[in-house]
Amino acid sequence: MTIDNQTGLVLEGGGMRGVFTCGVLDYLLDHQFYFPYGVGVSAGACNGLSYMSRQRGRAKFSNIDMLEKYQYIGVKHLWTQHSILDLDLLYKEFPERIVPYDYETYFSNPARFEMVTTNCLTGQACYLEEKSDPKRLVAIAKASSSLPYVCPVTYVDGIPMLDGGIIDSIPVLRAFQQGYTKALVVLTRNKGYRKTEKDIKIPYFIYKSYPRLRVLLSRRCQCYNKQLELVERLEDEGRILTIRPRKPVVVGRIEKDIKKLTDLYEEGYACAEAALQI
C-alpha cells in the first residue's frame, strides 16, 4: 500500500503499551512520513500529539525516562488526586515545564488530528480536535486517556468524558468517514489477539449518574474484539496497512518495568522499519 494524501494515520491506545507506538512514530519522523489526517485514542492520542508537533523522542522520554524519575503511576496518587496517575504532573508540569510541548508547531501544522473520547452522558464517541487553545487541547488529551474506574471523569466543554477506548479503540472507520480511502493503523497488540475475559454487567452504583456509560462498559470486551476482526478484514482487503507487535506483549496497561518498556519501544521502531522500508 502506498502512503499518500489519501492515507490517514490511526493510533490505538493501550496505556503503557503505547510505547510501541512511540517507536513507530519516531521512525515516521526520522523518515519524514507525514499524513494529512490522524486520529488517536488514549495513549495513542497523547503520543500522536508529540508526532504532530514534530518533537521526535518526546513521547518516549515522557513514557520511559520520566516514568523512572517521577514514578507517576501508582495507587499513592489515588489518595491525593483520585487517580492511579499523577494527573497534575502529566497534564500540567510535563507540557509546561518538564518536557515543554511545542504548541506553535502543532497549531501551524496543516494536518488535522482528532482525539477520541467517550461522552459519559450519551455513551457516544466524540472526535475532538483543537488548533488554537492550549488548555482545551490538553483537556481533550486528558479526557481521551482517563481510564474508567482508576481515573476521574474529565470535563471538556462542560461535558463529562472518559477514555475513548471504551467505545472506539481503533478508529479506522472514523478515518474513512473523513474522506480518506486508506489508513496506516498502529496497534498495540499482536495479530490474532482477542480479549478472553467475559463482559459483565456493571452494577448500578458504579457511574450511577451515567447509565449509558455503564452499558458501554458492560460490552467492552465484545466491542474491542469486533474492532480487531474489522481491522483484520480491512487488512486482508488491502485497505489498511497495520504495524503491530510481532509477538504477545508482556507490557501491562500500567507497566512500570523500564526494560520491558524500552524493549517494546525498540520493537515499535523495528516493526515500522520493516513495514515501511522502500
General description of the model:
The structure is a single chain. This protein is an alpha/beta fold. It is built from eleven helices and eight strands. It has helices at residues 19-30, 43-52, 58-70, 76-81, 87-98, 103-108, 134-144, 172-177, 211-218, 220-236, 258-276, and strands spanning 7-11, 37-41, 112-119, 125-128, 154-156, 159-163, 182-186, 240-243. Strands 1, 2, 3, 4, 5, 6, 7 and 8 form an eight-stranded mixed beta sheet that branches. Strand 1, helix 1 (19-30) and strand 2 form a beta-alpha-beta unit.
Beta-strand content bin: 5-15%
Order of helices and strands: EHEHHHHHEEHEEHEHHEH
Describe the main β-sheet briefly: 8 strands, mixed
Oligomer: single chain
Helices and strands: which structural class? alpha/beta
Kindly provide the radius of gyration, computed on alpha-carbon positions and rounded to a whole number of angstroms: 17 Å
Residue share in helices? 40-55%
Shape annotation: globular
| Topology, number of strands | 8
Uncertain segments = none
Mean pLDDT: 95
- Terminal CA distance: 11 Å
Helical region count?
11
Question: Concise description?
Answer:
By secondary structure, this protein is α/β, with parallel strands linked by helices. Helix content is 43%, strand content 14%.
Q: Could you outline the blueprint of secondary structure elements for this entry?
A:
Elements: E1 7-11, H1 19-30, E2 37-41, H2 43-52, H3 58-70, H4 76-81, H5 87-98, H6 103-108, E3 112-119, E4 125-128, H7 134-144, E5 154-156, E6 159-163, H8 172-177, E7 182-186, H9 211-218, H10 220-236, E8 240-243, H11 258-276
Parallel strand pairs: 1-2, 1-7, 2-3, 7-8
Antiparallel strand pairs: 3-4, 3-6, 5-6
